[in-house]
TrEMBL record:
It comes from the Bacteria. This is Allophanate hydrolase. Keywords: ATP-binding, Hydrolase, Nucleotide-binding. The keyword Nucleotide-binding applies. Residues 24-305 form the Carboxyltransferase domain.
Length: 365
């Protein structure tokens, strides 16, 4: 089978990179909140980056593996444990039938991601395995995971090429203050110069009203010219709405498809994981960048993922060549022997002894 849940934790769902192409019909994209962490988890276990993963929020689940496989845990450090012992993060780890997975606490960040080699046996609905909680579509019966739920593995693995290379340096989510780079618009002209200056200079704090739909921030009021209402238009992941009360709201994975509040800017894609991994009380400042800079940063991340995949997919050392190296090493060790280094006469307390000394040599006898 795969993995069986003893409890589902605070909020554990199945997500991939989202259900695209249906916003015109009112269907949110959904998908993982932290796309970088999810992609890295999948790459480490040899999956396509869009494969469904388990998104664990704040307090993780307890589960038991009912089949062997290889997993990787990335994102927030929520104290992942395998059979009660610390599970290495950002690393491919082999698990066996009967092993237990648990999470001990919240050490940094908010969301962890668990990828399973070969993928999860979850129905693809409208091109995605993602869970849309509001519409009860996708994932595991359109809902969060709970006690007794069991998900099968599609094509589990017991080994992967270059297993010793399948570990990378974990991303750091310990910072409680962040700078989010933003591209201004599309309604930045609805704000006064003072409002724009406030947005780009003030410090804001994430409030308790933050979830998969959006993250509310609290701080200095951002001044509009004539209020924050507009004719409803489309919304993107990372868009920053500012209603008439002047407080920014960052739209996240489950954002509505359209909205009637002014959008002063959008968080660039490579910085969205910082929002996804934040908690209430964390501080944030916004910094303006150009579209070109945002694109360059995105391309750099794509190239990073590409390089990692190429490194892990390289053909391992051929068995014959490896065996030859081992045999040569064994032969070298076997060729070592002790040879005579000379015979000496030694006098101790007036008594003479004949002593033959030997030394370790390598080569033909």
């Amino acid at each position: 089978m795969g993995i069986k849940f003893l409890n589902g934790g605070f909020l554990t769902t199945i997500q991939d990179m989202g259900r695209t192409g249906y916003q015109e019909s009112g269907m949110s994209v959904s998908g993982v909140m932290d796309q970088r962490s999810a992609a890295l988890a999948n790459i480490l276990v040899g999956n396509d980056e869009n494969e469904g993963v388990m998104e664990v929020t704040l307090m993780g689940p307890m589960a038991e593996f009912t089949a062997d496989n290889i997993i990787a845990v990335t994102g927030a450090n929520l104290g992942a444990k395998l059979n009660g012992k610390e599970l290495p993060m950002y690393q491919a780890v082999q698990v066996h039938k009967g092993d237990s997975l648990s999470f001990a606490g919240m050490f940094s960040g908010s969301r962890a991601y668990v990828a399973f080699a070969g993928g999860l046996d979850i129905p693809v609905i409208m091109g995605s395995k993602s869970t849309n909680l509001k519409s009860r579509v996708g994932g595991y019966e359109g809902r969060k995971l709970g006690a007794g739920d069991e998900i099968a593995f599609t094509a589990p693995k017991t080994t992967l090429p270059n297993m010793h290379l399948r570990k990378i340096k974990p991303d750091d989510f310990t910072a409680t203050e962040q700078v989010l780079r933003v591209v201004m618009g599309p309604q930045d002209d609805y704000f006064t110069e003072k409002g724009l200056d406030t947005f780009l200079s003030a410090t804001y704090a994430f409030t308790n009203e933050s979830d998969r739909m959006g993250c509310r921030c609290e701080g200095e009021v951002i001044e509009h010219k004539n209020g924050g209402d507009i004719i409803t238009d489309g919304i993107a992941f990372g868009a920053i709405q500012v209603p008439s009360h002047g407080q920014p709201i960052i739209m996240m994975a489950d954002h509505q498809t359209t909205g009637g509040y002014t959008k002063i800017a959008s968080v660039i894609s490579v910085d969205l994981p910082k929002v996804a991994q934040s908690r209430p009380g964390y501080k944030v400042k916004f910094r303006k960048v150009s579209i070109e800079e945002a694109q360059e940063l995105y391309i750099a991340q794509v190239e990073e993922f590409k390089a990692l995949k190429e490194k892990l997919s390289k053909a391992p050392e051929p068995a014959a060549e490896r065996d030859a190296v081992i045999q040569a090493a064994v032969a070298h060790e076997a060729s070592k022997y002790w040879g005579s280094a000379g015979t000496y006469k030694v006098r101790i307390d007036g008594e003479e002894f004949i002593v033959e000394l030997q030394e370790e040599r390598t080569g033909l006898r």
